[in-house]
Amino acid sequence: MTLNQQTREEVDLDALVAVLDAYGMDLREITDVVASLILLRWLDLADAEAAAEAAFEERTHLPLFPPGLQWRSWCGAESLEIADRLDAVAQRVTTTVADTGPGVHLRLLSAPLKRLLQLNPAYLADAVQWVAALPMETPSERRAALQAFDSLLTKAATPYDAESATPTSLAKLMVSLADPRPGESVFDPSFGRAGLLVSAWRHAEASHTGRPHRPGALIDIAGVEINPQAFLLGLTRLILAGAASARLALGNSLESDLVRGTAKSGFDVILANPPIGAKTQRDNGGYHQFPFVTPDLTGMFVQQTIAQLKPQGRAVMAVPEGFLFRSGVECALRRSLIEQGQVEAVIGLPAGVFLPYTGVKGSLLVLRKHGNVDRIRMVDATPFFEPAKGKRPAMLRGPMADQLVQMVRGVALPGSQRARIERGPGWARYRPSIEKHLGGFHPRPCGSRMGLASSPSRKGLVGRASGSLERGQW
Known about the structure:
The protein folds into two domains: 8-155; 159-470, Vaccinia Virus protein VP39 (Rossmann fold), CATH 3.40.50. 42% of the residues lie in helices and 12% in strands. It has 16 helices and ten strands. The protein has helices spanning 8-23, 27-56, 71-74, 79-95, 110-116, 121-133, 139-155, 168-178, 195-208, 228-241, 256-260, 297-308, 329-339, 398-408, 415-422, 431-437, and strands spanning 185-188, 220-225, 247-250, 267-272, 309-320, 343-348, 362-368, 375-380, 443-444, 466-470. It has a ten-stranded mixed sheet with strand order 3-2-1-4-5-7-6-8-10-9. Strand 1 (185-188), helix 9 and strand 2 (220-225) form a beta-alpha-beta unit.
């Protein structure tokens, strides 16, 4: 979609945002309000469907709300009546407790609905009526609604969102590397706005096209998020994407008891983009289960990810570039991962890949639980990306993403592609970390396996887009 091509939903949403903005709401508050109303609308649709199924099966159905508070009974009313009913709904969600089903996260709606009730009733009615007019009955309609909602999130983006948002291009790359398949379980320990989980769902949908549909969810999605506002936005996006059965928990995923509640036997795939720069609180006794208590939470998330994988599980994690260089306990953690053969690949990302949220440079780690990796693939992804421009992040287009994934997996590329890739900046910037902190790992070029010219020396890796590290010399 070009900048001049907007869906009707996006155009109408722009008008609604202008109205709410004129009343004094900032974009962050508007996203919360719109998300809350979308969830109320979806809960009403899900509840009506459950009631119809119960009636067909001749069993009792207990609705989430009494008839007078159900969305369908008041969304088309006059502005003052809408305000009265929504006030009653806000009070109801504060006290409603549901252990399972669509209403399990109802309490999250309390604060945004209370903010919405501060509006002039006429403006409040505008917001309700926009959501009421939004087609949401079919999967394709919900996907269109997700597109409109995502356009709002893009407009509201600030550097403060770095802890909860993963740029779409990066999320697609991480999911392609992990390759979650239908029937597998996928977990994100800090899912934020659910960028990785939504991409995983879409990836599984694409790989499932034309095949018989198995009962239940396409993939088993689970996630934990500590920020209630990010949780609300992520939940909304997952529901609109079609992953309404996702098992989500609000809290600190580094607390072992909370994570154990999401899966008893571990996960097939873990995708993670932990908060950048978050520091460990040394007096927190909740981290006693980690062998390496790192000063930065990145190291804790790496350890938790390995622990939560199934024996044959795989993970792709985004980490700040500093994690690959720092000494001390983080160096000891890196050495342990390598000695156990759990690092399959390290992928250097270009500057600007996390924009517009943060300019911090990062890398991707591809990890395996079983520990049988004896050759670490080293890839510089910079030549595959279009450079960042202004607030626009470095972009990875479809064909280039496929080529990058093939390179990470060790697939030789055609000569014309190889020539362009070899002109990339390579891994010179990682040599100090490799030589100083990996303690005896010697980088060697991939040679003919990657379609790159062979070289017997360390120097042969410098200036190339890909190389590998052999195990066995430390």
